[in-house]
Amino acid sequence: MTWFMVAVVVVVVAAGLLRWRRPAWYWLAFGVVLATVRVLVRYSSVMEACGLTVPPSRWRLALARVANRPVPESRAPRILRLRPTRTGLVLRLKLRPGQDAFDVASATDRLRHSFGMYGVNSREVRSGVVEVRMTGYDVLKQVQMPAKTDTRPMRVPVALREDGSVHYRDYRAVPHGLTLGATESGKSVYQRNLVAGLAPMDVALVGIDCKQGVELFPLARRFSALADNPDTALELLEALVSHMEEVYQLIRAEQRISVAVPDAEIAADIWDLPEDIRPVPVVVLVDEVAELALFASKEEEKRRDRIITALVRLAQLGRAAGIYLEICGQRFGSELGKGITMLRAQLTGRTAHRVNDETSANMAFGDISPDAVLAAIQIPAETRGLAIAGDSTGGWHRIRAPHTSLRQAVNTCNKYADRTPDVPALAPFRPAVAALPSARVPLSKTAPATA
Ligand SMILES: Nc1ncnc2c1ncn2[C@@H]1O[C@H](COP(=O)(O)OP(=O)(O)OP(=O)(O)O)[C@@H](O)[C@H]1O
Fold first, then answer.
1. What percentage of the chain reaches a pLDDT higher than 70?
2. Are 125 and 104 in contact (CB under 8 A)?
3. What is the pLDDT of residues 312-371, one digit of tens each?
4. Fewer CB under 10 Å: which end of the chain, C or N?
5. HEC string for 61-130
């Protein structure tokens, strides 16, 4: 294997020497091959130096003694698979008896220095098998999403992780999400990527933008309902609750449970319903949620309580009815009043951009992972868009969404405007937009200024 790789390098170098002016992908491929060879050549010695070897077993020692051979060497984890990627390398290792995934995880920084890589991350694949991802450069400095991603219904490739893999927002696995971050930290760009990713899918988008609609209203053509103030937001949320109840009635009617129905055929959520009657899933995007929870008078307090109650009901019961919440804000804690922590507990997918204090980071990760809190505080102010994404299992990743301008997101929404479904319950909130010009809108800055 090693000699084959050396031969490949020799051929690549020779080709490079004959003609230095090569496209960028050539030098990228060259770097990856070089890194692969470096890792393979140094593998055993680095693993030993990093304390990732185990001494020879008793029977190997006995065998060597009987055969009068030298004492066998300590053994490193066996390489099951080596896969060069666009950003570096992925190794799959079979651990030796006595080793565990934590041994590898705690040695990642030593491995990074020893192999001369930019970053090394590890994760357990299954019992006894660990995947080690190595990146040759800072992939989050200038985010470039791979051309091919594993897109499935309700699963959006929204950002890149620091280990070079794609970060997906999978609504069916993690129905509701909370995105926090200080001002100018990159929340809107992240949300724009989500909308652009959802636009080509069969999904109804509902937006509540309390920044007077500046973020979501330009994307109106792909939205089935929009609200730009707390009063409309309340009506819209209550309409969504009624829609949810109707969907539950539909699921109930379709269950038709009798003793003869096998378990698998009993519908428990919209995805179990036949496609022809399945209601369209709804993603509700709320920008600057604190605006919905603040009040200055008795009247506003009543409105606030009704809004939070509707949000809590949607978060508790929405998943089976195909209603998913995506809540965005600068802070989201108990200081916003009653019901907020109850709502937060239902928002499993957590993403924190740069925050200014530990309390804000705690609002995202305090109840999930203390390490993630620390990582969120350490995000540098100059790297906008960098975020920590965690889930309820305690796992977290450093991610960054590609920089999508509002113009690009508007063009994507206009392109898929015909996919905007009509949800009867939300019809009164459908934004009124002028008809799209028949000519195709070019994906460039020269597109007309009207969204
Ligand atoms: N992923 C990214 N890559 C590069 N630049 C980014 C990224 N995300 C955000 N930025 C830059 O940071 C600036 C602020 O981003 P954004 O408007 O998303 O912040 P925000 O958190 O929504 O701020 P506010 O709460 O004040 O609206 C943007 O103008 C953009 O240039």
1. 86
2. no
3. 999 999 999 999 999 998 888 788 888 888 898 889 899 999 988 888 888 888 877 888
4. N
5. HHHHHHCCCCCCCCECCEEEEEEECCCEEEEEEECCCCCCHHHHHHCHHHHHHHHCCCEEEEEEEECCEE
Which atom of ligand 1 lies closest to the CA of 402? Answer: 1
Q: Round to whole Å and give the CA distance between 94 and 251.
A: 46
- In CATH, which superfamily holds the domain spanning 155-429? P-loop containing nucleotide triphosphate hydrolases (3.40.50.300)
CA of 390 to the centre of ligand 1 (A): 20
Q: Determine contact, residues 187/194, Cβ cutoff 8 Å.
A: no
Known binding residue 188? Answer is yes
Mean pLDDT of 130-149: 88
Nearest by Cα to 40 from 85, 94, 4: 4
Q: Mean of the pLDDT values across residues 39-48?
A: 90
ipTM: 0.96
Contact 360, 373 (CB under 8 A): no
Residue 448: pLDDT above 50?
Answer: no
Which amino acid, one-letter code, is at 351? Answer: T
Tokens of 174: 């993690």
Q: Can you give the residue ranges of every domain in the chain?
A: 2-135, 155-429
Tell me which of 138, 183, 185 to substitute to probe ligand 1's pocket, judged by most ligand atoms within 8 Å of the beta carbon. 185
Q: Which residue is it, tokens 């330009």?
A: 218
**Could you tell me how far CA 325 lies from the centroid of its own chain?**
15
Q: What is the mean pLDDT of the chain?
A: 85
Task: Read off the pLDDT of residues 358-401 as tens digits, 9 standing for 90 and up.
Answer: 888 888 888 778 888 888 888 988 889 999 998 666 678 899 99
Q: How far is the CA of 190 from the centre of ligand 1 (A)?
A: 8
Q: Whose CA is nearest to atom 11 of ligand 1?
A: 384
